[in-house]
Design brief:
The protein is an alpha+beta fold and 438 residues long. It has 14 helices and nine strands. The chain folds into two domains: 196 residues; 133 residues, Immunoglobulin-like (Sandwich), CATH 2.60.40.10. Helices cover 58% and strands 13% of the residues. The strands form two sheets. A five-stranded mixed beta sheet has the order 2-9-8-4-5. Strands 1-3-7-6 form a four-stranded antiparallel beta sheet, with no helix packed on it. A hairpin with a 2-residue loop joins strand 8 and strand 9. Helix 2 packs antiparallel against helix 5, helix 5 packs across helix 11 and helix 7 crosses helix 9.
């Protein structure tokens, strides 16, 4: 069929499909809105969870998915509302026909004004049809724009992390090739953006277009624009579509500004204050985390009120912990860091006794870095690897409370920190609790 696009029969088929496309638009919009609302909360939770555990790859992917969902939800709901208005206008036209200004019997001044500003009812229906079709098409085009920006950022990050900052590549490659490549991507990104917002100005000037063409070719691959380029140019050659595309951008900025507002009920008190000697945040108590949709704090204990003779302490794992272990024990740092995206098909780990001995050394270093105190009394650090009730990976230890008096106490978890070649003690978390032994 792609070879017959100039065939009159094919063009007639396209014309027929255009006239009936509104039905497919409504069906797709309805199913899409239902699906997007269903998955939006899980994606939002994934963003917060990845941020909380500092999983940069998961955070980036989840954030792109969340932004894409938000754009589609807004555009498709707007499309359904306008399609509903369009269908209502069609039904009204069937009953009432066009607007008869003579029947309204308004004064001459109002009649002239309304004929000029309101015009024909058929024109109004046609305008609604144009808005609906363009909004539906641009909804998916905007997702490609989000992906284009994301892939450009990924390209910059990959060059920075795996070329310029690489310890395995020779200096003449990491610096001699990496830095010029980074400059090309950054400058090219700016030039491509200028060409985009000026509706292809750089393509219009003969001598500029010769310089810009290699940049355009490279970024067409990075941004995958070859997949959606026909849509872009079809919008740009249509005045109405081009105008609507620019009208939607301020709407997105307005929505972003509106959703950023929140109400403060106090100058000093709010729900997101971290736990300390006078604040008990739910993110640090397992029983509160089990009943609330909050994310796990860096350190957790079972409850605000402890009635047993021991206190369980759980510390959530994140990648920065491993960097701190390497800082205090450089012998544990592998030649090839396996953190990040891995492929299970080729990444086979056979383990072995050597791996177990390294884990023991890892935990020994961890327990040297991190210390536990209740009030002013220090306790031995005996953390081991474990998972909490939410199957999150971390470190767990138990502290005896036999010598503790009844009432309020404060658990403090601190760590050693190297700062300007000096080692200082840094408070990780302070968690208040009450001890009343049964």
């Amino acid at each position: 069929m792609s070879q017959d696009y100039n065939n009159p029969g094919f063009k007639k088929l396209l014309q027929k499909l255009q006239e009936e496309s509104w039905q497919l638009e409504l069906i797709i919009s309805g199913f899409a809105i239902f699906g997007l609302f269903t998955i939006y909360d899980p994606i939002q939770n994934s963003v917060h969870e990845a941020k909380n555990t500092q999983q940069i790859y998961k955070f980036f992917i989840s954030l792109i998915a969340q932004i894409s969902c938000a754009i589609l939800i807004f555009n498709l709901i707007l499309h359904v509302l306008l399609r509903g208005l369009w269908i209502g206008a069609l039904g009204l036209r069937y009953v009432s026909g066009d607007i008869d200004y003579d029947v309204l019997n308004y004064s001459e001044r109002f009649t002239k004004y309304l004929k000029k500003k309101v015009g024909s009812f058929d024109k109004y229906i046609g305008t609604l049809e144009n808005y609906c079709s363009i909004i539906f098409a641009i909804s998916f085009l905007l997702i490609f724009y989000v992906l284009a920006i994301s892939f450009t950022i990924v390209s910059i990050a990959l060059i920075g992390n795996y070329v310029i900052s690489s310890d395995t590549l020779p200096g003449w490659i990491s610096k001699g090739i990496g830095i010029p490549l980074m400059l090309f991507i950054c400058i090219g990104m700016l030039i491509t953006f200028i060409d985009f917002v000026t509706l292809g100005y750089l393509k219009k000037k003969k001598w500029i277009s010769k310089i810009y063409f290699p940049v355009y070719w490279v970024f067409s691959i990075i941004t995958l624009s070859f997949l959606y380029r026909p849509l872009v140019y079809n919008f740009l050659d249509h005045k109405f579509g081009r105008r609507l595309s620019f009208i939607l951008v301020p709407f997105y900025l307005l929505i972003l500004a509106i959703t950023s507002f929140h109400y403060e009920s106090s100058n000093y008190i709010h729900a997101n204050i971290r736990s300390n000697t006078i604040v008990a945040n739910n993110e640090n108590y397992d029983d509160q985390l089990a009943t609330n949709k909050k994310f796990t704090g860096d350190v957790t204990i079972p409850s605000k009120v402890i009635t047993t003779s021991h206190l369980k302490i759980f510390m959530l794992y994140h990648e920065n912990i491993e960097d701190r272990v390497f800082a205090f024990n450089s012998g544990l740092k592998p030649k090839r860091d396996k953190r990040g995206l891995q492929n299970n098909m080729v990444n086979v780990n056979f383990g072995g006794s050597n791996r177990d001995s390294l884990r023991r050394e890892y935990l020994k270093t961890f327990n040297y870095i991190y210390t536990v105190q209740i009030d002013s009394t220090s306790y031995p650090s005996e953390f081991i690897l474990a998972q909490n009730f939410k199957n999150e990976l971390g470190f767990e230890t138990y502290v005896s409370l036999d010598s503790l008096s009844k009432g309020k106490h404060v658990l403090s978890v601190s760590r050693l920190r190297i700062r300007k070649k000096d080692t200082i003690n840094w408070i990780v978390e302070r968690i208040p609790f009450w001890y009343f032994k049964d």
